[in-house]
Specification:
heterodimer; A: mainly alpha; 3 domains; globular; B: mainly alpha; 8 helices; 56% helix; extended
């Protein structure tokens, strides 16, 4: 034991990381060599490929389910950073500025911190309910991601009843909030949970009724089909055919996502943290994530229903043609032959030097090494941008995803903006607004839309 | 190599396995609703039971009914039931079992019901499933609902409207407010009955939290089991001296 222990203890912390990694690398190389030599690995690959190909339905489902779970976390990180930074800039503060460039890794550190915190269960709570509540709350928005059409052909399931499914599963989040509020054995938590129930159920009615107008115009509840119906010019977007429905939907979505000015459920000046008061560590993190994923899916749904989803607001090809710009996108790297080898070997070096040398000459106070590093990073950024442009011009889905994300994050920005600007409403104002204004307005929208459809079809 | 059509040893189709899982979860959860002492847990088990039932609807090829089941029964009705329980019950222990002294009557009723059900099940000529289930599109359901069954649909909506009006009437009933409540009324500036369902207007506002007594615990024991418990006149707590 001590034979191994003594040299190990002499290693620096970095060495203790590198040495096992080296061992792993050597082992993997040997295993791969042996595997290829005996023909074991190609056979295994073929077998797994056949197996997956034969059960493509199950594979598709598992991939879609994993993808939405995986994408929910970076989405939440981005929105958390955006919220911190945008509100800070609106308040003339600096905001996060320590970790990463402009503090952009701040929310990742936040996430790690939450993971590392003690996860305790207070005395008197209803343990199973208390434990399950964050999971239920997080599950609801993540399940909603499954039917959102991100780009042409890029969606989890093209469900016929996607919209109904979406409202059904996102209604589950209130359940998690109530479970948390009740099981915490704390009157602030209970008040938060009760407020969540009252608020979300009340605002679900105008939210759903505002969408009925869109369903009548589109004639379908499939989100993918609704987006496709809005293709064409910008005037085909339902935002212009359903202006009242759009406004009602956005306001109700704000309440549905528990965002300011309707964040009564966790009003920190009144209820400590509402339903999340007794939670710590990653369980609190789940509530946190659920809120931001909820903001994302509500923004995405607004985009899909009213702003044409992945449709571009204008057609870029005629503009480029008029300017006489043409791209020859048929990249055929194999044509380069031996040149490709030289390009691969020398391209990065030459590119780095080409960027680094001017920087070094202009900034005399920087060492050559520093300008080399900066040049390398800049080269990578430029190459990534070039690859992005190439992808966007060659594949429809990438452009569609780009437009979808731009529109969605515009609404996310709007949510953040409202949080920085508007004061919180009182609970009686909140409920009165829902029942006395939003509900009649959404009914008016419904009847006017139905009338308009009949009139238009009669005139034609 | 894909999955075999039937499960190797048991000889079932995969749908059978799903059906048995959903049915088992549904029945088990329903049993737990009835035998549980903790009423909130009972409510949560009921939600699980509803969810399994939605799964059964999907298996039967009616996703629209399944979505409506989740949307209405889980998302609205169960949540309202839980809401009512949380407003009226105490966390500190199960309330007194009011139906306890009617156990014999309950047992008799249960046996009678079970006999009736068994007779019905045995006496009905059950049609055989034709193996292939055709998913029913929502347009067909809409056509049936607003064509053939329009009268039934309208009658049901009138019934619901009557229920809503009755709820509002009960919630708006003027009782003599007790002193604590009058104080809360004063704090609650310009309270107004909010809407059709009745729970509104500061009923769960911060003013009650301030008025809550430390000893009251959560939602004062059995304070509000009267009809109209969800009405604007019922506080969260601060009425701990009620029975």
């Amino acid at each position: 034991m001590s034979v191994l222990a003594r040299p190990w203890s002499r290693l620096t912390p970095a060495g203790k990381v590198v040495l096992p990694l080296l061992g792993l690398l050597v082992f993997l190389t040997l295993a791969l060599l042996v595997g290829f030599a005996t023909g074991l690995i190609p056979g295994l690959i073929r077998f797994v490929g056949d197996l997956l190909g034969a059960n493509i339905g199950i594979v598709r489902f598992v991939v879609a389910a994993s993808a939405i779970l995986l994408m929910s976390v970076p989405t939440a990180f981005v929105i958390i950073y955006m919220e911190l930074k945008v509100i800070a800039l609106m308040n003339l503060r600096l905001g996060p500025n320590r970790v990463g460039p402009w503090g952009s890794l701040h929310s990742i550190v936040h996430g790690l911190k939450v993971l590392g915190k003690e996860d305790f269960t207070p005395t008197g709570v209803d343990v199973p309910v208390f434990t399950l509540a964050p999971a239920v709350t997080f599950l609801a928005p993540v399940l909603g991601l499954l039917v959102l059409p991100f780009a042409p052909g890029l969606l989890g399931i093209d469900m016929n009843l996607a919209l109904l499914y979406f409202f059904a599963v996102s209604g589950l989040s209130v359940l998690g909030l109530m479970m948390a509020g009740w099981s915490s054995f704390n009157k602030y938590s209970l008040l938060g949970g009760l407020r969540a129930a009252a608020q979300i159920i009340s605002y679900e009615i105008p939210l759903t009724l505002a969408v009925v107008g869109v369903i009548m115009l589109a004639g379908t509840m499939s989100l993918n089909q609704i987006v496709m119906n809005q293709s064409g010019s910008i005037l085909d977007w339902y935002m212009f055919k359903q202006p009242l429905g759009f406004v009602i939907f956005f306001i109700a979505a704000t309440a549905e996502g528990n965002r300011t000015p309707f964040d009564l459920t966790e009003a920190d000046s009144e209820l400590v943290a509402g339903f999340a008061t007794e939670y710590s560590g990653m369980r609190f993190g789940f509530f946190f994530f659920a809120e931001y994923v909820g903001v994302f899916i509500l923004s995405a749904l607004t985009t899909v229903l009213f702003l044409g989803g992945w449709n571009a607001p204008f057609d870029i090809d005629p503009v480029l043609n008029a300017l006489g710009i043409r791209f020859d996108l048929a990249l055929d790297l194999a044509r380069l032959d031996v040149g490709l080898l030289f390009l691969l070997a020398l391209g990065p070096v030459v590119g780095t030097l080409l960027i680094a040398l001017p920087i070094w000459m202009l900034r005399s106070d920087w060492s050559f090494l520093k300008s080399l590093v900066i040049g390398f990073i800049l080269l990578n950024v430029l190459l990534a941008a070039a690859v992005g442009v190439w992808l966007a011009l060659s594949f429809e889905a990438v452009v569609g995803l780009g437009w979808f994300l731009v529109k969605t994050y515009f609404f996310v920005f709007l949510f953040v903006w409202m949080r920085a600007t508007l004061p919180r409403v009182r609970i009686d104002q909140l409920m009165g607004f829902a029942w006395k204004w939003m509900l009649p307005a959404s009914l008016v929208n419904l009847f006017v839309t139905a009338l308009a459809i009949i009139v238009v079809s009669e005139v034609r | 190599m894909s999955l075999p059509d039937r499960i190797p040893i048991l000889g079932w189709v995969w749908e059978d396995l799903l059906f048995l899982t959903f049915a088992g979860v549904m029945l088990g959860a329903a049993l737990l609703v009835v035998i549980g002492r903790n009423i909130i847990r009972s409510g949560l088990w009921m939600i699980l039971s509803f969810g399994a039932l939605a799964g059964l609807y999907v298996l039967l090829g009616t996703p629209l009914v399944a979505a409506a089941q989740v949307l209405v029964y889980i998302g609205a009705i169960s949540v309202l039931i839980l809401f009512a329980i949380m407003l009226t019950q105490s966390k500190e222990g199960p309330s007194r079992l009011v139906f306890h002294h009617q156990a014999w009557a309950g047992a008799l009723a249960a046996v009678a019901l079970a006999l009736l059900l068994a007779l019905t099940v045995l006496g009905t000529e059950w049609p055989q499933a034709d193996g292939q289930l055709r998913p029913s599109p929502s347009a067909d359901i809409a056509r049936l609902l607003f064509g053939e069954y329009l009268l039934a649909f309208e009658v049901v909506s009138v019934l619901l409207l009557a229920a809503v009006i009755g709820g509002v009437f009960l919630a708006k009933r003027e009782d003599l407010p007790d002193p604590g409540e009058a104080a809360i009324e004063q704090v609650r500036l310009g309270s107004s009955p909010g809407g059709p369902t009745g729970y509104t207007s500061g009923g769960i506002g911060p003013s009650e939290a301030d008025a809550a007594r430390p000893s009251g615990g959560i939602g004062s024991t059995g304070a509000a089991t009267t009809p109209g418990a969800l009405g604007p006149s019922v506080g969260m707590s601060g009425r701990g001296d009620a029975p």
